[in-house]
Amino acid sequence: MRQHSMANPKKIQELVHECNVQLALFRVATQGIGTAQDGASLRREVETAGRACQKAVEAANNVVLPQLRADGKYPFNHFQNSKISFSEAEIARHGSLFIGCVGAYLIEMKRCVKLEKTFPAPTEPSVTRQQVERVELILDTLENLITVHYSTNEQPCLDKLQVTPRRRRATSCRPQCVCSKLKTSYA
What we know:
Blueprint: H1 9-31, H2 40-73, H3 88-118, H4 129-152, H5 178-181
Helix pairs in contact: 1-2, 1-3, 2-3, 2-4, 3-4
């Protein structure tokens, strides 16, 4: 069996965290568009934060995507002979966090484009249509890989999954005393 060179889970976690940090900075900068702080310096800040977030997403994508592709082709135990051991939970968690981050970045990019159209400035747009399309492509690819990944793996045994109904609390209220339970003030 072919041995894969996979990233350390700690490295993936750091990259996803960096994506979240850059996303937060981009979001904060974008919120200033159309306010009293809006100007050329804010638009430069939005553009810089957007580029940094784009780079963080690309860097994380270059690590997470091969991981998801490899796990979609081979069973989870194919790393037995390697020094790195990944569990299904780690893969799912990192993949889900990253997909959520990319989805939130896409929403913020679209919001930035709309805000810049609503409040035009003499500067170039901070986010281009090509950047939005690139992030949409990354998100589609990741979502498709996750879908394939979970549809090709073993399905959980439905016999083990049980839903236990919650006990209802006993109510001491009768229809006659409903009005006494309400607190109203006409003062």
